[in-house]
Design a protein that fits this description.
It is a single chain. By secondary structure, the chain is mainly α. It has 21 helices and no strands. It is 67% helix and 0% strand.
Length: 415
Amino acid sequence: EDWRENYDLSLALHSHAAEAHVGSGLIHDVDDIVKPVIQHARVTTDKVTACCALIQAQGSAGRQEDAIFLGLSLLEELGCVVPYPVPKGQLLYRMLRLLRRLSRMSDGQILRLPRMTDNREKIGILQVLHVITINFLGSSLSQPAMMAFVSILSVETTLDFGLTVFAASAFSMLGMGITRLGKFDDAARFARIAKTLLEQFGAIAFLPRVHMTNYGIIQPWTRPVRECLDPLFYAYRIGRQTGDLQFAVLCGVKCCASSIEAGIPLVQVLRYWKSLYHVMLTQNDTLSLAITLPHMQRVHNYLGLTDDPLAEKGDLIDYGEAKATASGFAILMLKYARMHLCSTRWHKKDVPCTFFVKRVAARTLLATNRIGNLLCHTCLLLLKATKNGEVSPKSCDCGNPSFNYLARRYWRNDD
């Protein structure tokens, strides 16, 4: 009866309540709040806000399959069909076609696109795509194709129909996706566009989400990691102020991980992480916990807080249990090893510290590896996994010549 007589009010109250519960960490109550909206919504666009809140809640609770199903179903109702799983051929074709299109446009042309204000269906599609991409941000190792395809759709829709508040996130996510193709300059360009769009729309609420991809993933490929720490910490503070606690914590977690790579004293990193850990527990943020615990286990290992640093079961995480996850222990270590090859020399502050070094720089790492560099430990873990049969020696070739060089050295020396 309330819905028949006060439809607009009931819809607004339930939608805002769902968003408030996600922001306050009460994610397990969101299902009950959204159910009436799904039942009584007159048109699909009316339930977009509430369903997006539910997708975020499911993602934070680790219910990735439920979040995928709800997001793709909602997109289909809005007239946007996303294949699942995404065919690799179609993904590559759409990606290269979009990159060619963007290469023919200047930054100014993109930033001067008209704003989309009256197309509720397209705005709804962009809102759902936005929520799906941020939902998969923390699990990009297990859903890289889906995340890339959704970011492509977001940018294509923006170019076809105009700019919205979601455009900044769309370009930053696209930049994140093409780092996997080695297109670091293009990724940095899209990060700059995303930052300008963020300022253009005055969308302070989206800042933690954009900074997470810009400074947590894109910029470290071309700029010193230390330059990314202050923007990430700033995004953490903004997220706490605006109520985007999920991405505030993710920015804080990424700041911790990047601090390790940048050579910040580990005791200081551990102290900062402990304050984040309390927030993650309060918010029931299982996703952020899953991301940060491997990093903090490494810190415990480096500081000698564990009895056996090479054991699969540490005081914070059991790598044996991680084998049952979607990416698996061996694949996870391979990808971490590739990402964490970032220091040219641990104690040389005058040398840029980025995620990519060449074979010559890798040779200079060996001396510092002998005294406990993080890369040494990562190599040892990977080689141990190889010897235990969890990954074949051929798979040690992760595409990075520097890492391959080090892996062969440690494999031969067995020390």
